[in-house]
Specification:
Length: 193
């Protein structure tokens, strides 16, 4: 973003969120994290949003890594349950909301304060990163369903069952929302208004 790369680490002895100059690779800053950061952060309006295995979603200033807010995600992690991590989804920002898959849920947070606005449950783990198109938030789940939730309220608008779990993240193109499933198929849906 604007010539800067932001990424997290999952080191054994130390974990950080890094900010590097894209052209030179020079370190701008690094922020210590109590646990691993698996998902890609989102950067909007000078704020970096990310989640870590310590069961929190964070917002930090893009300029220097200073903490803006920290919110508990609701799915505590066992230090040794590497293959059952509940925080692999990358955040999506739309308007004043931040959307992220945590555990079996899709969360909507106020992006300025980190306050939980709503939570929508699925029947399986949400590793898929959400996509916001218009007033709908799309996300896949390990319960084999692809969901569309209202961005305003979290109400389920629809779901489509595929033949296997969905860990891929949806994309938009040519007015279609695309999602891959572990059943080996690519699904295309008309984007809701």
């Amino acid at each position: 973003m604007d010539g800067v790369i932001y990424f997290g680490s999952d080191g054994v002895s130390a974990n950080h969120l890094f900010s590097l100059q894209a052209r030179t690779g020079k370190l701008r800053w690094k922020r210590s994290s109590p646990t691993q950061i698996y998902a890609t952060p989102a950067v909007v309006d000078g704020v970096v949003y990310y989640c870590a295995r310590d069961d929190h979603v964070y917002a930090v200033k893009a300029a220097d890594g200073e903490l803006v807010w920290k919110t508990r995600a609701g799915y505590p992690q066992d230090d040794f349950s590497v293959f059952s991590d509940m925080l692999k989804s990358s955040p999506a920002v739309a308007g004043d909301k931040l959307f992220i898959g945590v555990g079996l849920d899709l969360l909507a947070l106020d992006r300025r304060t980190g306050t939980l606005l709503w939570k929508a449950s699925t029947g399986g783990q949400v590793d898929s990163s959400p996509l916001v198109v218009g007033g709908t938030v799309y996300v896949g789940s390990d319960d084999q369903n692809f969901y569309g939730f209202s961005a305003d309220t979290g109400a389920e608008r629809w779901r489509y069952r595929t033949g296997a779990r969905i860990s891929a993240s949806p994309q938009i193109g040519e007015g279609l929302v695309l999602i891959g499933s572990n059943d080996g198929f690519l699904y295309a849906f008309e984007a809701a208004p």
